[in-house]
Amino acid sequence: MSDPLPEYEEAVLRMINEPNRGTDQTGRFRAKSDLEDEFGKGSHRLGAAIALLKKRGYVKDIKAILASIGDTSIDYEAYQLTALGKNYIANTAASLTSFNNITNSNIAHQSQNVSQNIKIADQPKDIQEKYKELQEAVAKKDSSAMKKAFGYITDRSVDVAIAIATGALLQ
pTM here? Predict the structure, then answer.
């Protein structure tokens, strides 16, 4: 990816990309007058920003493209994002999802055992007994008993099963 755009130029690029907000009469392009309304009419900075975006291949001048094929249906300047411009926005846009704040410490935030300090003594008696059975089965290398005990624990508490599997269960 090329160098990041300065803030002003990125704002212009994003406004050109915004759908259904002050688009030209065809509804497919961003009219320059809309950009001037937002960023200032006759702004030298706006002209420089558009020139930079065109130079990088992020936007195309629709009036010039249509004129090159003999179509003079629009008599105003309008811009549209290119595939490269859309790619730039996709690669720089913040991901605004409900998952963008997940860290290793809060993945199980709805779990009753979110503290990650799971003590076997704090678990129900049946889990404690199955944990002892699991330890005995491991010592005897009895795979059938291990599956039975671990399966029971997993059915009762996934958090305890994860703690056992990762070696994080406190005695």
Answer: 0.50
